[in-house]
Amino acid sequence: MKSPDLRHPFVFDIRTLSRRPGAMVTSTRTVDALDELGTEIIAIPAGNPVEIAVRFESVLEGVLVSGTVQGRASGACVRCLEAIEQPVEADFQELFVY
């Protein structure tokens, strides 16, 4: 398996995270969206800033990753076709098993 490129803005280095259950590392960063994030109607355009706040927790099964992604989406109202822009936020959680 190929190792991820640590220079990639969406790759987090968690080598400092202990494998002891209960250990935790947090990180926040703002990166530019590499691609459009959303739907054809409304999305965060490529190149716009996306703020990521993430928490890595050691659990018995592996590493539990949870966090929030925030940005500003733009698009068009499907009813009146007026241009709109609004803040968006999404929570996520994923377990990566050892």
Provide a quick synopsis of the model.
The chain is an all-beta fold and 98 residues long. 0% of the residues lie in helices and 56% in strands. It contains no helices and six strands.
Structural summary, described in words:
This protein has 98 residues and is mainly β. It is built from no helices and six strands. It has strands at residues 24-32, 37-38, 42-44, 49-59, 62-76, 83-97. Strands 1, 2, 3, 4, 5 and 6 form a six-stranded antiparallel sheet that branches.
Provide key terms for this protein.
0% helix, 98 residues, 56% strand, 6 strands, mainly beta, six-stranded antiparallel β-sheet
H/E topology pattern = EEEEEE
- Helix share bin: under 10%
Main beta sheet: 6 strands, antiparallel
The low-pLDDT segments are none
| Average of per-residue pLDDT values | 94
Q: Write down the overall geometry.
A: elongated
Q: What does the radius of gyration come to? A: 17 Å
Number of strands: 6
Structural class call reads mainly beta
Distance between the termini: 14 Å
Number of DSSP helical runs: 0
Strand content: over 45%
